[in-house]
Specification:
The relative contact order is 0.20. The chain is mostly beta strands. It is built from no helices and 12 strands. Strands 5-12-11-7 form a 4-stranded mixed beta sheet, with no helix packed on it. The termini are far apart.
């Protein structure tokens, strides 16, 4: 299984080479590595007993930016799914978020800041546009997989356009 460790064809002295682990799937990947020690002196090489071990690389979320359009007073809900829109979403991924730049023409938005409340598996809020033109709110979201080690993915953005609801003025049509 490919975890980013390249095979070593020529003998090396000392330690196994360092590498950056890689897991582009949404489940843990386990690679089996076999190392055979060799001692060489005066043109004679003697091999030791090979040791085999495993390296487990947990997945980390990789989620593309999202764009949502809603009407005022509606609720948007973004729940990224694995293999949809090129996203890698490990099972049990949860999200924290904050609004990039507050838009005070929109009511109902909030940052996820309460550390006593666990992160959620979706991003959802009911937004109210207080104007008569579309308004935009951008969230910056941090995904974290629930795999051992709780691997955090790169942040992504959710851009929500909130269109106003039309209203009629009270008029006396007599």
């Amino acid at each position: 299984t490919d975890i980013g460790l390249l095979p070593v064809e020529t003998p090396i002295d000392g330690n196994m080479p360092s590498f950056v682990s890689e897991n582009l799937s949404n489940i843990p990947v386990i690679a089996t590595v076999s190392v055979t020690p060799t001692f060489t002196a005066n043109g004679i090489s003697c091999e030791g007993i090979a040791k085999t071990f495993q390296i487990k690389v947990n997945p980390k979320p990789l989620i593309n930016n999202k764009f949502v359009e809603i009407c005022s007073e509606d609720t948007f809900n973004v729940e990224p799914l694995n293999n949809i829109d090129g996203d890698v979403v490990p099972n049990g991924t949860v999200y924290t978020w904050e609004v990039l730049t507050p838009n005070f023409n929109i009511d109902g938005w909030s940052n996820w800041i309460d550390l006593s409340i666990p992160p959620t598996n979706s991003i959802s809020q009911t937004l109210i546009n207080t104007t008569n033109i579309p308004q935009i709110l951008v969230y910056v979201v941090t995904p974290v997989s629930d795999a051992l080690g709780q691997c955090a993915g790169e942040t992504f953005e959710i851009e929500v356009t909130v269109s106003p609801r039309p209203t009629l003025q009270d008029k006396d049509f007599v």
